[in-house]
Automatic annotation (TrEMBL):
Residue span, BTB domain: 164-231
Pfam family, one: BTB
InterPro entries: BTB/POZ_dom, SKP1/BTB/POZ_sf
Organism for this UniProt entry: Symbiodinium necroappetens
Protein name per UniProt: BPM1 protein
Length: 367
């Protein structure tokens, strides 16, 4: 900017222009005159000003209609609109301080906006195409469709136990349910309730390996297909802990995993395994590893082995680790192979060979 006046004087000019640009078929350019001099020579009344947009006639000539606004950058970097949004309908120059000789506005020029020898501007230009544009939109019914409610309705069905025909006896508490839902959701329950087993006659299922809170969470999943939240399970765990004292009991997540495995509800089973991978601790890792080995939960088993390897000093102090090694030699061998970095395929071969030897010796456990 500091050289601009000198350069214009040297070139015998009064303004500078931008390269031409087009909107639709219409050509425009931006004009800047630092002294607010003459910026248009093609009409009987020449125009003066500091900043303007010049429009040119299209080829072939058609009527022009457009509107523009100019924003200038302040010294703090923000942009402010200079003047108001204006409209144009002919081929000439337009700008906030454009005027004919003798009718100058109160303020000409924009040097107050120059920062670091630079003037920064934004132009917003809209051109209206010639002719009326009609867009047809098909009529749409404005009917609000409710969100799905099946999961809520099924949960209500379970809670109210209306028309129930099956009873689960869990820790002395009766929980009523519906055989059709249970048979549709679990192959194990279908066989129990419809294949001539005792439960199919009495419609009473005794559950002796699960607490009430966990079994209710399990049934809720069967009815709604909604996975429980970690917060819900934590609340149930705290409630259950108040009833049980003594040695460590499985976490609510472990218990839910066990019951989902028992009844072969695969989605819930895999979700529990994924959550247990994230929640491993020294206190529970040996218990989870034992169950992962029994349930053949490969990914969870790897997560447990990795956790023990990385936290060996802490886990070695626990009685659970000693018991695991003495009572489950195959798990101890898996841990040894994993910790020493034996490739997975080679480790599988070693474990299979050991299992065959134990079967031949009659010492292999039947799980």
């Amino acid at each position: 900017m500091s050289w601009l006046r000198t350069a214009l004087s040297q070139e015998c000019g009064s303004y500078v222009t931008s390269p031409d640009f087009f909107v639709d078929r219409y050509k425009f350019e931006v004009i800047y005159s630092p002294l607010g001099n003459r910026i248009e020579d093609y009409t009987d009344e020449p125009k003066f000003g500091s900043l303007a947009i010049r429009s040119y006639p299209p080829n072939p000539a058609t009527p022009l209609a457009f509107r523009y606004s100019i924003l200038v950058q302040r010294r703090d970097g923000s942009f402010v609109q200079w003047d108001v949004i204006r409209h144009g309908t002919s081929v000439e120059v337009y700008g906030p301080d454009v005027h004919v000789k003798g009718s100058a506005p109160s303020a000409i020029g924009i040097f107050e906006w120059v920062s670091d020898d630079t003037l920064t501007l934004k132009f917003v230009l809209e051109v209206r195409p010639l002719g009326t544009q009609v867009t047809e939109f098909p009529f749409k019914e404005s009917v609000d469709v409710p969100e799905p409610s099946l999961h809520r309705d099924m949960e209500t069905l379970l809670e109210e136990a209306s028309s129930s025909d099956v009873r689960f006896s869990v820790q002395g508490e009766d929980i009523r349910a519906h055989s059709q839902v249970l048979c549709a959701r679990s192959e194990v329950l279908r066989k129990q309730l419809s294949s001539g087993m005792q439960e199919s006659m009495s419609k009473v299922v005794m559950v002796e390996d699960c607490n009430v809170a966990t079994f209710k969470s399990f049934l809720k999943f069967l009815y709604t297909d909604n996975l429980p939240t970690i917060q819900d399970l934590a609340t149930e765990q705290a409630s259950q802990a108040e009833k049980e004292v003594g040695s460590r009991h499985p976490s609510q997540m472990e218990a839910l995993w066990a019951v989902s495995h028992k009844y072969q509800v695969l989605r819930l089973q895999r979700w529990c395994e994924a959550q247990l991978c994230k929640q491993l601790s020294a206190e529970q890792v040996c218990s989870v590893l034992r169950q992962a080995h029994i349930f053949e939960a490969t990914q969870l088993e790897k997560a447990c082995l990795s956790y023990i390897r990385d936290n060996l000093a802490e886990v070695l102090k626990l009685q659970a680790y000693t018991d695991l090694n003495s009572k489950w030699p195959e798990i101890a061998l898996k841990l040894q192979l994993f910790s020493t970095g034996v490739p997975e395929t080679e480790a599988a071969t070693i474990l299979q060979a050991r299992k065959l030897r134990r079967l031949e010796d009659g010492t292999e456990k039947t799980l």
